[in-house]
Amino acid sequence: MKASACCSRNKAPASKWGRGGEIASWLLPTATLALIPKCPACVAGYVALATGIGITLPTATYLRASLILLCVASLAFLVVRRLRRLNAARAASRCGTTGRKTAPAPPA
User: What is the model's pLDDT at position 84?
Assistant: First the structure.
């Protein structure tokens, strides 16, 4: 009997670097979203301190909104990717336990 395609996957365990990258991909947008200041004046001040470039308050407002949108989009992407992986793992684990067997080939 041949195993179905979902059961024949051999996945290597995650390395330390891969696991660390996955954790960082969650931490970076989460920390950025948590640390974004509420007022545009603070954003302009932080940009001036970090880069030495002064920006206007409307520019700081757009920058803040863009950062929030980018962080939320990044987290939404990570959630969707995680859900797809969980669904794939669930389907692969059910593949061997459902009792389904492939039908034998008809005689030639």
Answer: 93
